[in-house]
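Recall the central idea of this unit: under ordinary conditions, the amino acid sequence of a chain determines the structure it adopts. In this exercise we apply that idea directly, starting from the sequence alone.
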Amino acid sequence: MTSNPWPKLPLAEWKDTFETLHMWTQIVGKIRLKLTPLENHWWNVTLYVTPRGLTTSIMAYKGQHFQIDFDFIAQLLLIETSHGSCKTIALQPESVAEFYQETMAALESLGISISIWTTPTEVPDRIPFEQDQKHASYDPEYANRFWRILVETSRVLKEFRSRFIGKVSPIHFFWEGSISLSPAFQDVQHLRTLAVHMWPVLWM
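Accordingly, the structure predicted from this sequence is:
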């Protein structure tokens, strides 16, 4: 794996991995959507950057709590519960359908029985997860590079956010549509002023 904090990530070279990983994050994101109460701007559905990948953060289910993490160092999907149970799924080349079945089966084995709407959102190719054999590529090197860029982008955005005096969300990873990492601001005038002063920092 590369140690460069800003590694190269040419779309042409990781497009297939990107499209598959995007659908995997939609599956995990929809699980969070199912189990969390609605928050302003849908902040309850997003994932968060961690020192190893992405996380749902804690979710509640019938008297227990759990979270789901993408680990782009060990190349695992990790499901941990407050009862001490844990399941892992290898992140490797496989179809969205296979990943979906493995993830739901792992949750079932932990006593977490849920159903989600399996149609992807805000994408042109809306193949239901359980039928999607088209997206089946995964290159761990490029997934790791993607995460490293997210880590550094999160660092920059936190610096940007810290100078904003209005209401602002944590740094979110949005999985619907085209995946993105951003905070959400709610004071437009202050944001415009801040953007003018932060522009050299963000683009230096």
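The helical segments are 11-35, 96-109, 140-162, 188-202.
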